[in-house]
Amino acid sequence: MTLARIGIGTASIGMALMLASAAPAQQSAAPNAGLYLGADLSYVNEMEDCGAIFRKGGKPVDPFALLKAEGGNTVRVRIWNDPRWTRYSNYPDVLKTIRRAKAAGLQVLLDFHYSDDWADGEKQRAPAAWEKLGTEEQAKALYDYTREILGKLAAERLMPELVQVGNETNPELMGGVKERPIDWTRNALLLNAGIKAVRDAGKASGTRPRVMLHIAQPENVVPWFDDATVAGVMDYDIIGISYYRKWSTRTIAQLGEVIAMARKRYDADVVVVETAYPFTNAGADKAANLLGPDTLIPGYPATPQGQKEYLVDLTRAVVHAGGIGVVYWEPAWVSTRCKTRWGVGSNWENAAWFDLETHEALPAFEFLRQRYRE
User: What pTM does this model have?
Assistant: First the structure.
């Protein structure tokens, strides 16, 4: 795209996605067509290896098949470059996840962290192999790596429908911690290298994966994308937003205002690509819950029904504002016998979509089949 994104524009058209709970055949279109509704299931392989058994109605169930059956259509999966500290979220694990998602009839959003570890709104650390490279060399490495991963997936007929170029890139991409000011000349070079890699990989494979840029918390969206526009980062399709009320100054209604503004200002679709809410304040292990009582919003208690109502109302607000989807993080990170760097079990089990005792599916899944468009 060569035109500046700041100014009046129309949202780019979302791909038509038919939900399992589609409207009757005599209607011209499903009410939720064009929405991305789903979850990040990057933890499923690890949880199952750790002994987790997910259940629906007391019977074991595959989380990917369950997501589809309940009305979801999108699975998000993260990828790290060379995570020597874990055997998950590397290419072989991601390949397994995408195979499972596609087999269940789900679309895939591949989330490149461009790091060997978690990249987020607090930090963006370069992969060890790229750390000492100059900016232009890093841009080439980023381009080559992105093309390589997407090329391998295309050869397996597993090309993702959507690709994130970076995860919560509030700080400078591969630039360290957020306190460091962004060098937008460098940042734009790196982001545009990743975007070009997605475009070139799509062209080579005869596909058209949509490009997403992702920022944590709605209050950061307009300042970041204004700077990105001035720096020449414009060839993207979707703005992804993380929304956690615990870490945001914005209410759900104010999130909607940001979404409506961003759609017009940058001529892009908008998806809440991360959110979560607890169904209990209890825990199943000694690992501290990241989403504790300080997470709660008045009117949405920490109960299974409160969790579901949060998701329904959030999604209604997103769609009313012109957004095109909500993707949950991370519904399958349940408590198991396995140990993480933070302790034995899970720091997120009280915000999963499965109960603490038997990993029985919770009402949260029902948000996927609500009617959000008429």
Answer: 0.91
Distance of alpha carbon 268 from alpha carbon 284, whole angstroms: 41
Q: Provide the annotated active-site residues.
A: 168, 274
Query: Could you check whether the bond before residue 48 is cis, i.e. omega within 30 degrees of 0?
Result: no
Segment 3-8 long-range contacts (CB within 8 Å, at least 24 positions apart):
3/234, 4/229, 4/234, 5/225, 5/229, 5/234, 5/265, 5/266, 5/267, 5/268, 6/226, 6/229, 6/265, 6/266, 7/265, 8/264
With residues binned 3-state (H G I as helix, E B as strand, rest as coil), the percentages for the chain, rounded to 5, are 35, 15, 50
Q: What rounded mean pLDDT belongs to the chain?
A: 92
pLDDT at 358 over 70: yes
Query: What pLDDT digit, counting tens, does each position of 21-59 carry?
Result: 333 333 334 668 899 999 999 999 999 999 999 999 999
Q: How far apart are CA 138 and CA 222, in angstroms?
A: 27
Cβ neighbors of 362 (< 8 A, separation 6 or more) are 279, 304, 307, 308, 352, 353, 354, 355
Cβ distance 206 to 233 under 8 Å?
no
Query: In this structure, what are the phi and psi dihedrals at residue 328, rounded to the nearest 5 degrees?
Result: -90, 145
CA 340 to chain centroid: 22
Q: Tell me: the pLDDT tens digits for 252-283?
A: 999 999 999 999 999 999 999 999 999 999 99
Amino acid code (one letter) for 109: L
Is the pLDDT at 186 greater than 70, yes or no? yes
Rounded to whole angstroms, the Cα distance separating 369 from 172 reads: 37
